[in-house]
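Notebook entry, structure prediction.
Reason for the run: the old model in the group folder had no record of what sequence produced it. Starting over properly, with the input documented here first.
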Amino acid sequence: MNAVTDFIPAAPVVNAAEQRLASYDWSAFAEEMNNFGCATLKGVLNPEECRDLAALYPQEQHFRSHIHMARHGFGKGEYRYFKYPLPDLLGGLRTALWPKLADVANSWNERMGIDQRYPEAHADFLRQCHEAGQTRPTPLLLQYIAGDFNCLHQDLYGDLAFPIQVAFLLSEPGRDFTGGDFVLTEQRPRMQSRAEVVPLDQGDAVAFAVHNRPVQGSRGNYRVNLRHGVSRVRSGQRHTVGIIFHDAK
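New structure, fully documented this time:
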């Protein structure tokens, strides 16, 4: 596989993902993203799909690398980066989500005075990434057990970074695990940080700002800095899949 088109899922896969996402209120989604830097999409995946994705974790043929967080000071837990081609479900959702998120991202960049504008098709943005030397896929599958956590961080893998990413909870809270909440923090200039804990059920997705987002102030828009992480898992095992839209160096 050399051409960017080799990394794009087939049209029927994308069409199925687009149909899956068609029922959501994307205007309300954009408003929530603008107000809080994150927004949830309820029930994107069904329980069987969640279990099937989580079951991929020990199957090394699907992944390009395996990271143990403690070795790098990232927290405690582990994750694997998928390799291309992505599983059909993830590839289809990545492509189908792109135009919805690109609209928000373009609005944010305009408000923040950033020249970067994102194309209508995800393939065109991947082409930009690859021309910049960012060719490694970034969607990942994370696994936590009791005592594990993910430190607050930002997923920036090169000069080109799409400002929104999406995480899907694959495990069922209260049955598969306890604790392990998704946490987002926001630092506004000359103010103390604000924390947002996002409750998720199995199959839910949360979209959130990777780095900066605009906030309307009395003198116009200003940038706030965001980081995300996962609080300590108290019991059981928690799996999450993350879709990042820029490739890495």
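Summary: The chain has one domain: 4-243.
The old model has been moved to the deprecated folder.
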